[in-house]
Design brief:
CATH architecture of the largest domain in chain A: 3-Layer(aba) Sandwich
Shape of chain A: globular
CATH topology of the largest domain in chain A: Rossmann fold
Number of helices of chain B: 15
Helix content of chain B: over 70%
Number of strands of chain A: 22
Strand order of the largest sheet of chain B: 1-2
Bound molecules: adenosine-5'-triphosphate, magnesium ion
Structural class of chain A: alpha/beta
CATH superfamily of the largest domain in chain A: P-loop containing nucleotide triphosphate hydrolases
Strand content of chain B: under 5%
Structural class of chain B: mainly alpha
Distance between the termini of chain A: 58 Å
Largest sheet of chain A: 6 strands, mixed
Number of strands of chain B: 2
Largest sheet of chain B: 2 strands, antiparallel
Number of helices of chain A: 18
Oligomer: heterodimer
Distance between the termini of chain B: 24 Å
Number of domains of chain A: 4
CATH class of the largest domain in chain A: Alpha Beta
Strand order of the largest sheet of chain A: 6-7-8-3-9-10
Radius of gyration of chain B: 24 Å
Chain lengths: 523, 368
C-alpha cells in the first residue's frame, strides 16, 4: 500500500567528503508522508552529516534532493525551513542566555518587528499542551536540564510548522518515559500527515517508533528494511557488520574501603531552588553504584557536588574519609576523582582544540606530559595515539579539532581521558549516551574494568537496562533524595519504576523488602 | 560546476598568512581610489611613502621608532584578547607606564646608584601598567564588571593624570612654559642605535615576542590560558582557576604596555611631555587582530603600521597631502582584514558534479 505513495522527500546519490573522510558515499534516502524513517549506523557512519546536508548546513559534493517531487536546492537551514524541513541537532543549538520563548522565535523570518512575547508564550503553551511537551516559556535555557532543552528544540520545530522533522539522537538524552512520550508526540504528528527522520542507537526505539529503517556503514547505505520485517539482532548485525553479543561477563563484587561518603547533603540548582535535600550515599572501592531516576531529580547536582563544581548548602562530602565539602574542582581532581559530564560539548571538551589536546586536559599537569612547566608535544602526541587506539576513537588525525568528530567519538575521547586519569572515584553521567551498540558495550566493559581495579564508580544513567547489567547496587533518586538502595541482582524494572515515581523502598511490598535487605547491608 | 563555501577542518596556515597580505593590498587599492578623488597620483604617493619609510636606514629607523610601542602594546593586547578579555586600555597602561618611569627618572636620581636608575625606571613603568590593567581584570574576574568600560575609562584617568603632572607639579621651571618635565639625567636614557632614534625597546619587543610565543604555545600555563579563552565552563570543570589566571594574564598584558610607555619616555622624549599618548594603545588593537593574536606576527604587523604612520607624515611633506592619509589607510586595512579572516575558518571550493548536463537530472527525476 505504501509503495504506491509518492515520497515527500528523496535524496539521491548524496556524497560528502571531509578532509580525510568520505562521510557519505552515494547515499539514497526516501521518506513517505505520515511515516517515520529510522536512520541507523555506528558512531561516525555519517548519519548526522547526511541530515546536515538535508537542512543545508553542508553542501553535498554530489547528489540531488527532491522535496514533494521537485528538485530542491537547499543552501541554508532557512531554505530547508521554507520547504518545511526542520532538524533537532545532536548538540543543541540554543542560546543559553535567552529564554525558551526567545529561542523559539530566534531567527524566524516572518516576525513582526517587535514580537509580542505574550502571544508567543501563549502559542508555546498551547503547542506544549497539544503534544505534551512541558516547558516554561520564560525560563532561561541555562536553567534547563538537558532533557528539557531537548523539548525546547522539538517545540521550536513544531512552532515553525515543520512538515519533515529530523531528530538526531533525540532520545539519547531522554528518560525511558520521556522517550515514550516522544513516541506519542511523533504519533500525533504522523497522524497529522507529518513525517520524521529519526536517528538513534537504541534498537527498541527503532522497533517502537519507525516504519522504515535505513542502515549506514562507513558512509555507505548498506540496508533498507521495513521495520515490521526486521529484528533488533539483524539491525545490529547490519550496522556493525558482524554478530553483536549483548552479554557482559561480570565478576562478583568485592567492595573495599569507603571511597565516597555523602552525609545529609543539601544543594541548590541554578535557579536557587533546593535540588538535593538531605541526600546520603556511600560508595566503596571495587563497586559500581548506579543512580536511577527521572531526569531533573537532582542527578546532575549530585554529580556536581561530588566533583566540586557546586557548593553544598548543608551536609558533608568525604572522599577516602577526607572531608572534601566545598573544596574546589582541582582539589577534587587531585583526590583522584574523574568525571564524565552530561554536557560533553559544553563542558567535557573544548571544541576548537585538537583531539590530542583534549585528551591531555587532565594529564597536562604532570610528567611526562609536562616537565618544569613546559609541555612536551611529542609526549602529548604519543599519549593521544595510545588513547585513540585503546578507545578506538575515529579521528582523521590527532590534530583535528575535536568538534569535527562525530558525537559518539567526542564522547569516547572524554571517556578515554577521564578513565585514564581516574584514581579512586569515577563519576560517570550518562556515559554511553549517544554511543553505538559496539561502543556502548566497550564503555560498559571499561567501567567494569575500573571496578576490577578497585575504583568506585558512581554511574548516573537513565537506562535501567544498563544499571541492571553493570551496577552492583542501584540507588533511586527522587526529588533530591535517595528513595532506597537495592542490590541490582535483586532489583527489577517494576520496583525501580515505583521508586523512581517517589515511593520509598520501605513502603514497597514486604517480599521485595526481604529479598533486598540481605544484600544491601553496606548502605 | 558550482562554488561552495564550507568550514575548514583546521585553520589554514596559508590563509593565516595570505589574509593579512591580501587585506593590505586591498586597502592600498581603496586608498588609491581616495587619492585619485583628492587629485593625487596614487603611484607617486605610494612611492613617496615607501621611500619615506623604507628608503634609507634613517627612514627605516624612524619607522621602527613608531613600530616599537606598537609591538609592545600589540603583544599586551593579544594576550588579553586570547582570554576574551577586551582590554582596550593599552593607551592608559602605556601612559601610566611612562609616568612611573618618569617619576623614577626625576625623583630617584642621586638616591640610588646611577646604573640602577634605568632598570628601575623601566621596572616601575611595567609595574604601573600591570596595575592599571590589573584593576579592571580583578573587577571582571571576581565581580563580573564589564572590562570594555573599565579599561576604556581608565585610559582617560591615566592620560589626564599625566597631563596634570607635566602641566602642574612636574613641569620644568626652565621650560619656558612648555608642557613637560625637565629632561632626564643621561643615565636614564635608553640606549639608541647610533645615528638614529631607534632604541633598545626593539630588542625588548623581539625577545618578549619570542618568549610569549613560547609561553602561550609550549607551557602548562599557556595551555590553561588557551582553554580558558576557548571554553570557561570546560576550564572550571578541568580544575583551572579562571579568575586567578585572568588577573595574571592581564597583569602581563598591562606590564607590556607599561613597558612601551617607559621606553617612549626614556628612549625618545627623555622627559614626560605632551604627545606620549598619541593612540598607540588603540592602534595596538588593529595590530593584534591583524596578527591574529600571534606574538611573532605582531612584530611584523607593527612595522607595517609604523610605516603607515611615518608614510603619512612623508606624503604631507613631499606631496602636500594631509598626514591623516596614513591614518585613513590604517583604518581601511581593518575592513578587508575582518572580511578576510573569514577565509581562515572557511574556504571556497569549486565542485564539478559528475553529471553536468541539467537534462540528465531531469531524466532521473522523471524515471523515479
Ligand atoms: N565538519 C566536519 N569536518 C570534518 N569532518 C567531519 C565533519 N563532520 C563530520 N565529520 C566526519 O565525518 C564522519 C561522519 O560523521 P557524522 O557526524 O555524520 O557521524 P554520525 O553517524 O552522526 O555518528 P554519531 O553516531 O557518533 O553521531 C566522521 O568521521 C566525522 O569525523
Ligand atoms: Mg551524529
Amino acid at each position: 500500500m505504501n509503495e504506491v505513495k509518492t515520497p515527500i522527500l528523496e535524496m539521491q546519490g548524496i556524497t560528502k567528503r571531509f578532509p580525510g573522510v568520505l562521510a557519505n558515499d552515494h547515499v539514497d534516502l526516501e521518506l513517505y508522508p505520515g511515516e517515520v524513517l529510522a536512520l541507523l549506523g555506528e558512531n561516525g557512519a555519517g548519519k548526522s552529516t547526511l541530515m546536515n546536508v538535508l537542512v543545508g548546513l553542508y553542501r553535498p559534493d554530489e547528489g540531488e534532493i527532491y522535496v514533494r517531487g521537485k528538485r530542491a536546492e537547499i543552501h541554508s537551514p532557512k531554505d530547508a525551513a521554507a520547504l518545511g524541513i526542520g532538524m533537532v541537532h545532536q548538540n543543541f543549538m540554543l542560546v543559553k542566555t535567552m529564554t525558551v520563548a526567545e529561542n523559539i522565535i530566534l531567527g524566524m523570518s516572518d516576525l513582526p518587528f517587535v514580537p509580542s512575547m505574550e502571544t508567543v508564550g501563549k502559542r508555546i503553551t498551547e503547542i506544549s499542551k497539544r503534544y505534551n511537551l512541558q516547558v516554561d516559556p520564560n525560563a532561561y535555557i541555562w536553567q534547563l536540564s538537558v532533557g528539557e532543552q531537548q523539548r525546547v528544540e522539538i517545540l521550536k520545530l513544531v512552532y515553525r510548522g515543520a512538515e519533515i522533522l529530523i531528530l538526531d539522537e533525540p532520545t539519547a538524552v531522554l528518560t525511558p518515559q520521556e522517550s515514550h512520550e516522544l513516541a506519542g508526540v511523533l504519533k500525533v504528528m504522523t497522524d497529522e500527515g507529518k513525517s520524521a527522520i529519526f536517528i538513534t542507537h537504541k534498537m527498541e526505539e527503532v522497533m517502537e517508533f519507525s516504519d522504515w529503517v535505513r542502515v549506514l556503514q562507513h558512509g555507505k547505505l548498506v540496508a533498507v528494511r521495513r521495520t515490521q520485517d526486521t529484528s533488533p539482532q539483524e539491525l545490529a548485525r547490519l550496522m556493525v557488520g558482524r554478530e553483536v553479543l549483548f552479554r557482559l561477563d561480570k565478576a562478583a563484587c568485592t567492595p573495599t574501603e569507603t571511597i565516597l561518603e555523602l552525609q545529609d547533603v543539601h544543594a541548590d540548582d541554578d535557579k536557587g531552588l533546593p535540588a538535593l535535600r538531605g541526600l546520603s550515599l556511600t560508595i566503596h572501592g571495587g563497586e559500581i553504584v548506579g543512580i536511577a531516576g527521572v531526569a531533573g531529580n537532582g542527578q546532575r547536582q549530585l554529580s556536581e557536588v561530588v566533583t566540586g563544581l557546586r557548593r553544598v548548602t548543608g551536609g558533608q562530602v568525604f572522599i577516602r574519609r577526607k572531608d572534601m565539602t566545598n573544596q574546589n574542582p582541582l582539589s577534587v581532581i587531585k583526590a583522584g576523582v574523574s568525571h564524565i559530564p552530561a554536557d560533553r560539548i559544553g563542558m567535557g571538551a573544548v571544541g576548537n582544540m585538537a583531539v590530542s589536546e583534549n585528551l591531555v586536559m587532565k594529564g597536562y599537569r604532570e610528567a611526562p606530559i609536562v616537565i618544569n612547566g613546559v609541555l612536551r608535544p611529542n609526549r602529548i602526541l604519543e599519549f593521544a595515539h595510545k588513547m585513540i587506539e585503546m578507545f578506538r576513537i575515529a579521528t582523521p588525525t590527532p590534530q583535528t579539532r575535536i568538534k569535527f568528530l562525530s558525537g559518539g567519538n567526542i564522547q569516547k575521547a572524554i571517556l578515554a581521558r577521564e578513565i585514564d586519569a581516574c584514581d579512586g572515584l569515577l563519576v560517570a553521567v550518562y556515559p554511553s549516551r549517544g554511543l553505538d551498540v559496539g561502543a556502548t558495550e566497550s564503555v560498559r566493559r571499561m567501567l567494569l574494568a575500573q571496578r576490577e581495579e578497585g575504583m568506585g564508580v558512581l554511574l548516573i544513567s537513565e537506562d535501567l537496562e544498563e544499571l541492571l547489567t553493570i551496577a552492583d547496587r542501584i540507588a533511586v533518586m527522587f526529588e533530591g533524595q535517595i528513595m532506597g538502595v537495592v542490590a541490582s541482582d535483586d532489583a527489577d524494572v517494576e520496583t525501580l519504576g515505583l521508586m523512581m515515581a517517589g515511593v520509598k523502598r520501605e513502603d514497597l511490598a514486604v517480599e521485595i523488602e526481604d529479598a533486598v535487605s540481605t544484600s544491601t547491608a553496606s548502605s | 560546476m558550482r562554488i561552495i563555501f564550507e568550514k575548514r577542518q583546521s585553520i589554514s596556515r596559508r590563509a593565516m598568512v595570505l589574509v593579512p597580505v591580501v587585506s593590505f593590498l586591498v586597502s592600498l587599492l581603496l586608498g588609491a581610489i581616495l587619492l585619485l578623488i583628492s587629485g593625487a597620483n596614487p603611484f607617486e604617493t605610494y612611492a613617496a611613502m615607501a621611500r619615506g619609510t623604507f628608503g634609507s636606514t634613517y627612514n627605516f629607523s624612524e619607522t621602527l621608532v613608531k613600530a616599537i610601542p606598537l609591538m609592545l602594546t600589540g603583544l599586551g593586547v593579544s594576550i588579553a584578547f586570547r582570554m576574551r578579555f577586551w582590554n582596550i586600555g593599552a593607551e592608559g597602561q602605556l601612559t601610566l607606564g611612562g609616568v612611573a618611569a618618569a617619576w623614577v627618572a626625576l625623583y630617584w636620581a642621586g638616591r640610588v646608584p646611577a646604573f640602577l636608575l634605568l632598570p628601575l625606571a623601566i621596572l616601575a613603568g611595567m609595574v604601573a601598567g600591570a596595575l592599571w590593567a590589573g584593576v579592571p581584570a580583578f573587577l571582571k574576574a571576581y565581580l563580573g564588571v564589564d572590562e570594555t568600560l573599565t579599561t576604556l575609562m581608565l585610559n582617560y584617568v591615566a592620560i589626564l593624570f599625566a597631563a596634570h603632572l607635566y602641566y602642574g607639579p612636574w613641569r620644568d621651571p626652565q621650560g619656558y612654559g612648555f608642557p613637560g618635565t625637565a629632561q632626564f639625567d643621561p643615565s636614564v636614557w635608553l640606549p639608541r642605535l647610533v645615528g638614529t632614534r631607534a632604541h633598545l625597546g626593539l630588542i625588548f619587543a623581539i625577545v618578549l615576542a619570542l618568549a610569549l610565543w613560547f609561553v602561550l604555545n609550549r607551557t602548562r600555563w599557556g595551555f590553561e590560558l588557551k582553554i580558558i579563552g576557548e571554553n570557561q565552563v570546560a576550564a572550571r570543570y578541568l580544575g583551572i582557576g579562571i579568575a586567578r589566571n585572568i588577573v595574571l594574564a592581564l597583569l602581563l598584558s598591562g606590564a607590556l604596555s607599561g613597558l612601551a610607555g617607559a621606553c617612549e619616555v626614556t628612549g625618545i622624549s627623555r622627559r614626560l611631555q605632551q604627545g606620549l599618548s598619541i593612540g598607540y594603545g588603540y592602534t595596538a588593537i588593529i595590530v593584534a587582530w591583524m596578527a591574529q593574536l600571534n606574538p611573532i606576527a605582531v612584530l611584523f604587523v607593527a612595522i607595517l603600521m609604523g610605516a603607515l604612520l611615518v608614510g603619512g607624515d612623508q606624503v604631507q611633506m613631499t606631496m602636500g597631502l594631509p598626514a591623516s592619509m596614513g591614518l585613513v589607510l590604517q583604518g581601511m586595512i581593518l575592513f578587508p582584514m575582518l572580511a578576510g579572516s573569514l577565509f581562515t575558518e572557511y574556504r571556497l571550493r569549486i565542485v564539478r558534479p559528475e553529471k553536468t548536463d541539467p537534462l540528465a537530472s531531469e531524466t532521473v527525476e522523471a524515471a523515479s
